[in-house]
Model the fold of this input.
Amino acid sequence: MTNNIDLSVNIGSLKLKNPVILASGTVGYGNEISNLTDLSKLGAIVTKSLSLKPRKGNPPQRIVETAAGMLNAIGLANIGVEEFIKEKIPFLSQLNTSIICNIAASSIDEYAECVRILTKEDTIKAFEINISCPNVKEGGLIFGHDIKAVAKVTEKVRAATDKPVIIKLSPNVPDIASYARVVKEEGGDAVSAINTLVGTSFNIYTRKPKLFNITGGLSGPAIKPVALAKVLEIKRNVDIPIIGLGGIMCWQDAVEFMIVGASAVQLGTVNFINPNAGVEIVNGLSDYLTKMSIDKVSSLTGTFVI
Ligand SMILES: Cc1cc2nc3c(=O)[nH]c(=O)nc-3n(C[C@H](O)[C@H](O)[C@H](O)COP(=O)(O)O)c2cc1C
Done:
């Protein structure tokens, strides 16, 4: 409670002290940002995507600034599950915020195996599954663009842990609500929406792509209207908790996501511009609720009027 305002939220069985979460891939494993902000003021932080074995990711250039956003093609570079447990859990276990572990994989079994290993760690309160990864066994098709694969990943991960399972949906599909529906049917606790949109950028003098990978994921304010529409589409069609993200820069954006259906929000690109944005958004939400005479932030969720 801050000023008698209840900022706590429940996302399925996951209880957070407030709805502001730092998004995967934008704050490393937490220690990278801990000197620049007070992580204990946040609802949760999501780790960089972890795979079973370490991954080097793509060669540079991996990040390009765009109008109102950025493109990234990091290629899921990460230290792997084993090193994460050894090197990062001791730091994360001391933080007074919830830790959500994000998982990436190149096969359905790898997702389940990562979760089976990590679920033994008390520090990890929930799993977020990044399905925007190529399915190596199925010729590189992105899991998140194949509804049967999304169902299977959810089912297998669900069987591997009792902790909350959040599936992070790709916006690069025609009917995002049907993906949220299979997550619910297979026992997922929540969805997060959205991951990045596919984009590219070229140098007009060399005529070469600016990213080594040619295409990358577009994030930042440029994608906010798309993200809001995807959250709204899920909210109107499927009864499942939603964590909204995509271009949130300030508390007003967070309120907008909650009104269209999000139970909580994540901040990604803004962390590169203002590492203290999360704390400022928590304070902004609290002041807004006071001004509006609303005593619980959770009562904002899905209250849009059409
Ligand atoms: C540099 C960078 C790296 C990212 N890495 C990951 C990742 O490892 N796993 C993941 O699920 N999402 C990753 N994302 C996506 C973000 O978590 C988020 O879904 C997306 O950026 C949209 O939110 P934003 O507009 O607030 O940044 C990354 C985004 C950026 C900008």
